[in-house]
C-alpha cells in the first residue's frame, strides 16, 4: 500500500535520473547483455537510500544503472503504456504486488525468477518471510522480490489503560472489546477504539480481523465473504466502532483521519499498519507521542493472524533482453547488507535475519519491534482480495463494514456482498 506520508506519490512529477553516463558496451535499447540496466522506481525513501549506495554497486559490478523515478500515478501510466506494448526498454520494475501484481503476472509482464532465486545461495531466498513471498509469487513461482513490508498491529494509549484500571494491552479480540468499552465508560469524551471506516480503505485493516476469525475473502475462486467466520468478523469490526468508537463517527475515514483522532488524544486503541507508527510517536505530529504503546494484533478464534504484506517489490520485465544484469541489480538491492542499511533508516524489510539483528530494530520502539516479530510469524500474505481489478473488489467486500458500523444487519449485508463478489470472480475468470 502506498503511504503518501512516506512516499509523497501524489506530489511527484516524473523525474528521469541518469546516475551515470550511458557509454560503454551494449548501451542501445534492448541490446542483449547490455552493461546498462534500466530501472524504474517509485518515489520512496527506499529509492533515495538506494541512490546513495548505488555508486559502490556500479564500481563493483561494472554495470551502469539508469534510474527513472516516478510518482505513483506516473509509474502506473508508464507501465500501462510500455508493458502493454511489449517494450524491452524496462529491465527492473518496482511494483505493488497486491495492487497490480496479479495483473502483471497474468499478462506475463513479470519474468519467472525461480532459477535466479535458487541459484543465489549467498543471497538466500529462504531468508525472506513467507507472507511477502506468497504475495510476490504467481502459481507457486516467484515473480518478484519483496523490498518493503508492513503488518497490522495494535496502537494504544498507556495512560488511558491505567486510568481504566487495565494493566496490559489486550491479547485477544474479546479483551480488546472489553477494554475499549471500559475506557469509554471511564471517560465518555474519549473513544475506546478507532479504525478506518471507509468502504474501500477499511478493507485492508479489516482483513486481519477476518483472518483471525478463520475466514478469507475467497477460496479457490469461490467467494467466502458470507461464511460464518466472515459474518462474525464483519459484526465484530463494525460493532467495535459503532459501540466504542468516536461519537457520530463518519463512514469515509481512511488512515489519515483515523490516525488524527488517535494522535489528538481522542481514542485509546487503534489497529493500523505498523509502517505509519512515526505519525503517532513524533511529537511534531502527535499530542500523545509519549504515551503511545504497541502490541501484536489481538487473537481471534483462529489466533492472531494479521496481514504481513509487501507494499513494494522488484521484478524483471519479461520482455527485457538484459535479464542477467537486471538480476545482478536486484540481488544487490535486496541482499542482506543493503536490506539492513535500508531498515536502519526506517524502511521495514521482508528478511527474517534483519529483524533478528539488533541493528535492524534499533531505530524502532522496543514494543513495536516485538509486535512486528510476532506478526511476521503467523502473518497472511495479502490484505485484500487477490484479484486483477482490486479497486472494484474492495468496494464490494467493504460494503458490509460500513453497514455494520451504521447498525445494519451485517449478516444480510454479507450475503448481498457475497453474491456480487461471486459474480465479480466469475467475470474475472472469463
From TrEMBL:
<protein>
    <submittedName>
        <fullName>Sugar ABC transporter substrate-binding protein</fullName>
    </submittedName>
</protein>
<dbReference type="InterPro" id="IPR006059">
    <property type="entry name" value="SBP"/>
</dbReference>
<dbReference type="Pfam" id="PF01547">
    <property type="entry name" value="SBP_bac_1"/>
</dbReference>
<dbReference type="InterPro" id="IPR050490">
    <property type="entry name" value="Bact_solute-bd_prot1"/>
</dbReference>
Amino acid at each position: 500500500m502506498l503511504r503518501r506520508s512516506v512516499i509523497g506519490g501524489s506530489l511527484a512529477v516524473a523525474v528521469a535520473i541518469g546516475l551515470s553516463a550511458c557509454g560503454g558496451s551494449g548501451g542501445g535499447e534492448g541490446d542483449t547483455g547490455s552493461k546498462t540496466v534500466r530501472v524504474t522506481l517509485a518515489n520512496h525513501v527506499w529509492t533515495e537510500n538506494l541512490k546513495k549506495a548505488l555508486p559502490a554497486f556500479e564500481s563493483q559490478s561494472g554495470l551502469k544503472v539508469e534510474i527513472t523515478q516516478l510518482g505513483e500515478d506516473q509509474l502506473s501510466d508508464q507501465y500501462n503504456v510500455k508493458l502493454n506494448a511489449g517494450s524491452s526498454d524496462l529491465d527492473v520494475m518496482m511494483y505493488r504486488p497486491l495492487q497490480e501484481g496479479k495483473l502483471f503476472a497474468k499478462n506475463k509482464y513479470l519474468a519467472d525468477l525461480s532459477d535466479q532465486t535458487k541459484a543465489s545461495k549467498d543471497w538466500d531466498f529462504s531468508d525472506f518471510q513467507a507472507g511477502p513471498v506468497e504475495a510476490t509469487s504467481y502459481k507457486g513461482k516467484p515473480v518478484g522480490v519483496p523490498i518493503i513490508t508492513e503488518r497490522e498491529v495494535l496502537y494504544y494509549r498507556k495512560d488511558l489503560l491505567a486510568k481504566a484500571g487495565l494493566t496490559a494491552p489486550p491479547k485477544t479480540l474479546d479483551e480488546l472489546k472489553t477494554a475499549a468499552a471500559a475506557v469509554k465508560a471511564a471517560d465518555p469524551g474519549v473513544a475506546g477504539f478507532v479504525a478506518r471506516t471507509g468502504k474501500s480503505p477499511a478493507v485492508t485493516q479489516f482483513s486481519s480481523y477476518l483472518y483471525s476469525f478463520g475466514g478469507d475473502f475467497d477460496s479457490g475462486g469461490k467467494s467466502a465473504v458470507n461464511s460464518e467466520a466472515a459474518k462474525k468478523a464483519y459484526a465484530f469490526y463494525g460493532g467495535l466502532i459503532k459501540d466504542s468508537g468516536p461519537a457520530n463517527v463518519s463512514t469515509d475515514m481512511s488512515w489519515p483521519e483515523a490516525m488524527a483522532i488517535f494522535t489528538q488524544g481522542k481514542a485509546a486503541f487503534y489497529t493500523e499498519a505498523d509502517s505509519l507508527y512515526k505519525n503517532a510517536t513524533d511529537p511534531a505530529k502527535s499530542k500523545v507521542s509519549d504515551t503511545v504503546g504497541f502490541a501484536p494484533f489481538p487473537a481471534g478464534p483462529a489466533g492472531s493472524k494479521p496481514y504481513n504484506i509487501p507494499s513494494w517489490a522488484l521484478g524483471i520485465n519479461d520482455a527485457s533482453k538484459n535479464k542477467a544484469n537486471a538480476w545482478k541489480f536486484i540481488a544487490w538491492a535486496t541482499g542482506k547488507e543493503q536490506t539492513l542499511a535500508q531498515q536502519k533508516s526506517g524502511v521495514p524489510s521482508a528478511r527474517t535475519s534483519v529483524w533478528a539483528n539488533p541493528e535492524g530494530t534499533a531505530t524502532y520502539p522496543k514494543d513495536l519491534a516485538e509486535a512486528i516479530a510476532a506478526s511476521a510469524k503467523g502473518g497472511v500474505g495479502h490484505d485484500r482480495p487477490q484479484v486483477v481489478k482490486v479497486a472494484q473488489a474492495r468496494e464490494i467486500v467493504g460494503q458490509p463494514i460500513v453497514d455494520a458500523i451504521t447498525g445494519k444487519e451485517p449478516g444480510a449485508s454479507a450475503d448481498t456482498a457475497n453474491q456480487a463478489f461471486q459474480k465479480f470472480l466469475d467475470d474475472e475468470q472469463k
